[in-house]
């Protein structure tokens, strides 16, 4: 089983610890982006995974390739082109103060890449599973066209397609809104991942739940997933992440999954000292993709996804640098955090 | 509306993260002090504010001026004189271990400044609102005399005077105790801010509440504020900050306000992962001053103060580096800490 | 009263803050080990304490001696010999993710030290109290022989012997298991300290309590301590640490003590933002040893131990760098964490 | 005398010390750009100086304004507009390894600003001296048009215009080459600063000197400056910086000046442990502008410029954070570097 | 052309900047070792290179694999086995104070690996060029046996063998001295690299040159290389690095090469602000191996090696993170260190 | 032989690397002062040395004691009293830019200590050699009185007295000038150390040499030392440090010594990349004191002092953390800086 993920990776600049942006002299410089995060996580679980993106031809692009390769991802399909490396600045929140992202990702190499720039036959050669997100079609018209090309090509070749709907309200600035594009793209998706807001803002499917309140009514999520599955007959299953934001440090976290046969709900985790929650959804996606391939039961796959992404909240950076053993330990019920020596 | 604040600013030396003093090689070096913190915060809210202090004529004083100016405070009234820059060392606590302040502020330039060194006509030129605290009269006899001069001069000129009573038990070493001075100074104050201990230790007015317990009986605060207002007939309103210290990391936080017409109580915030609580009271003061000038209702002013100072607990350093939008977001009820992107 | 502790000290390498091992360029380099931690803590409380170990003859060993001496421990009995400095890597956990220790302590100077290398008459000259742990006999056969020699010699000389049973499952690799050795060694112990797992794994005495659950049934600990005391007639008292691991950040913490006359239970502390829990048990031991010598009542001694070790969880590194005043303040009931200035 | 400088300021990201880009987790984040560097330096010398640029409406732009204001520059004329903050990555060299700049400055707010976006009457209100560089017209066609507008408007208003020719070969990508624009722009310049390469690449005027060799034939510079002055009859004087690059750490440094009446040559400085040479030319410009206004003799002005910019090589960041006293000390012949205490 | 290098890689722990070991809290943690350094450098030049070593089965070993892979080296042949990761501590020198290495590399996984643990048929599958050093046979008897096995197997398979003699006086502790082993091993070497001391201490061939003086008499090196070539008839060429140590910061650096047909001498570089000289010899080796494969002339190959290794002295860490373009630039004569932008 | 040194130790605050004061968030916090530096250095050479000072009763004083004790100095004679810890800020220079010291040492505990506060019988108990400097009498009138008491008491007890004249022009502010005091104090000195400026400014003895030029005429120093010895008949010998300041990074360094029988001149060292020159003179003093006690010949003692203090310039902080072996290696002529492994 060989995996391919496709999308944008950015340079992430964050002040250390809880400093404000530019309060001190230093910024932590890492790389991250939804699809790259999934690729790194799959490689980290021992999967054979390739990552496709377009990077600038400069030292920043080179460093990005090295970072991805470090974690065992195949970088041979990465293309280098005109345009810049997208950047996002992350100012860390705490308590009632939210973390803030300042995007500086316009005119990136992948945003400038046009249909024709990527040879999908080559890109998909040997690939069994393809992962994309709702971010790529949001960054530019040409990236949207590439995204649609990619899922259609994958579908034609019989490749399983997974997609994290991932609605980003500050993108989608090129003239289309999210539902115009995503309702088309999702037709080609076998495995969908989303949160409640994604369903509503990307697909226009709304459940009567208050995502801002920090308290979730899980029962309504079966209805929501049924609605999505009804609307997209080729979709095999959909998983929803359930985040209850009580503060920047304290979140409830769980997931549910509907495979048309059954509705599954994961263990709920209370995370009380969040170290870094960016990439939590990506950690869920990669956990789910791994789980669906490694376990026979859907409950196990979902529990792996939930436990893996719960652990992400304790890791600095976008990448979920936990081992299978870490996840299995938590899945097995040990959330005690006792020192392992 | 132009504001002036007057008092001491110190060099603040704190080990990084949770290190003990001198456990590692490095100390975080910032600047802070009650009245400067208020000035920076007001400037940060877009107010026209000037800060008056006396600084030494050396590179440390120069750097201090730069830091204040960086945040948009008018530094043109700052005087340079004999004496040193006061310093405070801050060792961070956690859980049951309290943070500790070691003062090294004796013989500072402002402590040595004498009546006559400051021309109050010049200092108050164009000023509408003057802010002082109970710290300045505590540092030396001459600073006490300057403090009394300042509020009297302000009053004569029809300038609104606000004062944070701010009792500091390790100061007041020059021969007077706090009530001897503060009961006189407060006569000239229009807007007072205090906590329960300040009322008792500075004004000798006691409410039967246990400030150490971490649990506060709010009902008693109406009585307390009524007592203060009864004793100081020119005082227009008094606000009290309500801190419930459960541990170095977990505090309840709220405020109340009595304007002789009504007693207002703010939303109570539970802060569970305090990043830095020094300057919390100053953030309340500046929030209140801003709120009283920006909103028509006292409840709104109080809520702004409470929300602004709640957020301070998530910011490193004395200065409350949050935006009006951050405060309004929390006032509007969003304490979820969800990533803003 | 002069104290001696004997055992291994290691170089401790930990990434800063919550970084994964080798995620950044830097590692925090400190030193620590059970018996050294106890010595530093006793010196910190003003006790006259000497530390005995074997260190390599190189710059790493020199730095280790300096570090111990810095805190006022007498280092004149430390020997220098063949072998290396043991190292442990510590990867910090958070929430459901446990901290992890990677040991690199094989072939250390103390593991290679053989009976005959230490002259116990000299080592014990002037000593009244000797402290050892269950770690030293676990590291090598020769270290085990030295450990048995030490307690026998101490006993003969009428020196009080305290021992932290400290079971480490990844040691004991030289051919003996823990109970084979520890049941012998404990015969010479006057004051034993352990947790539930230590009693079971080191002495084979089991109480029906679930140490992994994070919830402890205190009542069962009286039975456990009675069992141990019954089996070891020369043991004067045993104290048990009670840790409830709810997560890597949140632990309940208390201790109990049985002196054959009475069963004492300490205050229970809820620690909600653990900074560093390594060395918590050692902080309990040193607090208890100090308490037994400084207070007349056992309850006070136990409370000192519990409060001291509670505070350790807020300190970076193995050493419990808190003052007697800090501990007495918490023992006195002030867990409010209010800034001390 | 009030000064205005106009141009782009960028976020500068440099790894600490001599690390490669992304070798460690951290990047030093400062701000810098030719015209901003000149403004900060003039403010630092106590001059009344305003800086004009266009910055994005986000937290990065806010931080940039704060940084400029910190040093006493008037930021009230800065405009906020569409587009991003330009960035440059700086990888430090040493010995034979050159420092490298990776530009990420396309689509910056100032590059997108169009004629009409800046009201030159307002911008020049109260201004006596205007400084611009050859970088601004190189970044985009619209910025070139603004640049030409600016010098023409300044000239009309009788404002002295200074210009650092500053040729950058990796800019000029919008369809014009440097001489096409610069030969026009320089017509309006009273005081020009350049190095040999600037003269050749920007104005097409070549002197037969080998700038790469690290050894300069000063005598040829009189001819070069005469040529420039001959070609631009309104130019009052031109100064040339003379850098002999022996390695990334060791440079010779001097300047010369031709005011049509006399040719002046400054003291030559040997700088053997360069800390940061970026901004050296800007430090010369600001030193010269200060010197021409502060001294009556041209030799003094030139010596001030040379000494000030010599000292810049010992300062981290783009800004020349030295005092007038530092410069006068070096001008006075004390290059001994003895500790001042 | 596919390359294989074989040897030990260690964790390298160095205090930042010029700190003494344990002067501050932090150590820079990187990885390095002669043969790994060569592999990383070849990968960096775009070569297809695999690295063979034995690493422990723990998180330190995992991080090491990631680091090697990051730079594009094939890590699939790396074996995991019993034993630890070797460590070396590096205390940086300056001026007259030498840098110091404290080895903690005994009992490493590769030192414990025995003949039979590595399947040389598999290891050499597809390999054209094999690189080894004189360090591996010095670390343990079994590693010596593996080293001899490796060169014999390579020779049999017609693989080109290169060897850096690399004498280390603090190794060779298992009962053999260097010449006993190296005179045998070198029989199988096609391309030898050494410095003067290596020839003498490893092969017993002495030239009358004073390596400590900082001044080298190049003429004697032709004689030395002739002697070596005479003694080892299968050796095709030998290159010698010529380091003149004037101080810890200032070295002369050059190389020479004798291919039995001609004696070549490279450009001599004066390096005056050494950033990190560890790995300089490895950078020469990898530069030479690249050069011999990329250029037709031996002079070019030697110049590439000399320039590449000259640049290494400006790079932190063992790895020579420079590009082919950097090296060609210096080979082309540009040692000016001018900022590239 | 037991040594005692007496004087002030300060907290030293320096920005990292080459940052300006307050350019970044961090300051390096170490401790240092002439007499403490000598004590640490002597302890470092294995001498039995005690350090006497007066420190404040707070956490800063505690940390200072720990730091001194770490290096093996006996701290049992240190007194704690009223007053603060003196501080000095150090801004690092480079090239032509001098390092700058900002003193904040007024009102320190030792400056406030009065005659009677120190029991000289107790202080000198068991002491054979006493070291003082010209700094202590410069800080306050009472410290001057204590200084005079100390040397008289020492002399009476037959203790050898050494003194580093150490003129500091920014001290001596209490009403006496240096010669008024020092000409008296030096009468009791057996071993004097000074530089040319000290002789002139402290004793009024001038040699016609230009200390600012960076070039020293050694021949004149014999005359100078003869003059001093003539004037102080009880002085047994005087040593002079010879610093040629070419820049902040490049100094020539040597020493000379006159013992009334012979004039000795040490090797001259060229230090070209100074890491930290503060404490260089103290390193010379401690090297000389060690040398006079360890070697029979004066030339050896002087060479040890010169080599030891040469090496200090490569060490961060006031303390000369080099070993006897390091010094002997340099004395032996090896200034090559070759890596020791």
UniProtKB/TrEMBL annotation, chains A, B, C, D, E, F:
Signal peptide range in chain numbering:
none
Record keywords, A-Z? Kinase, Transferase
Domain of life, per the record?
Bacteria
Gene Ontology MF, one:
kinase activity
A Pfam family recorded for this sequence: PfkB
What InterPro entries would the database entry show? Carb_kinase_PfkB-like, PfkB_dom, Ribokinase-like
In the UniProt record, does the keyword Transferase occur? yes
List residues of the Carbohydrate kinase PfkB domain.
Answer: 5-311
- Tell me its family: Belongs to the carbohydrate kinase PfkB family.
This protein's name = Carbohydrate kinase PfkB domain-containing protein
């Amino acid at each position: 089983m060989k995996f391919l993920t496709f999308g944008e990776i950015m340079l992430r600049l964050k002040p250390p610890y809880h400093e404000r942006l530019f309060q001190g002299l230093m910024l932590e410089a890492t790389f991250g982006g939804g699809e790259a995060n999934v690729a790194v996580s799959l490689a980290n679980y021992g999967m054979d995974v390739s990552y496709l993106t377009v990077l600038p031809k400069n030292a920043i692009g080179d460093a990005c390739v090295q970072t991805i390769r470090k974690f065992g991802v195949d970088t041979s399909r990465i293309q280098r082109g005109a345009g810049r490396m997208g950047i996002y600045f992350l100012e860390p929140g705490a308590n009632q103060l939210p973390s803030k992202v300042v995007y500086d990702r316009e005119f990136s190499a992948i945003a400038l890449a046009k249909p024709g720039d990527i040879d999908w036959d080559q890109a998909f050669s040997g690939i069994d599973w393809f992962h994309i997100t709702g971010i790529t079609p949001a960054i530019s018209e040409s990236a949207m066209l590439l995204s649609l090309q990619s899922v259609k090509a994958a579908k034609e070749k019989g490749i399983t397609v997974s997609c994290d709907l991932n609605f980003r309200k500050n993108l989608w600035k090129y003239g289309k809104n999210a539902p115009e594009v995503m309702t088309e793209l999702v037709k080609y998706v076998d495995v969908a991942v989303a949160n409640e807001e994604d369903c509503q803002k990307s697909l226009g499917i709304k459940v009567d739940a208050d995502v801002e309140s920090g308290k979730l009514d899980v029962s309504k999520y079966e209805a929501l997933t049924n609605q999505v599955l009804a609307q997209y007959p080729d979709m095999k299953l959909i998983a929803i992440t359930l985040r209850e934001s009580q503060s920047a440090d304290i979140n409830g976290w769980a997931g549910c999954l509907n495979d048309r046969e059954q509705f599954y709900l994961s263990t709920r985790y209370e995370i009380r000292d969040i170290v870094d929650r960016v990439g939590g959804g990506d950690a869920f996606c990669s956990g789910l993709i791994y789980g669906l391939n490694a376990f026979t039961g859907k409950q196990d796959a979902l529990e792996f996804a939930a436990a893996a992404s719960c652990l992400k909240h304790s890791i600095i950076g976008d990448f979920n640098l936990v081992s299978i053993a870490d996840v299995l330990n938590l899945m097995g019920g040990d959330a005690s955090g006792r020192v392992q020596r």
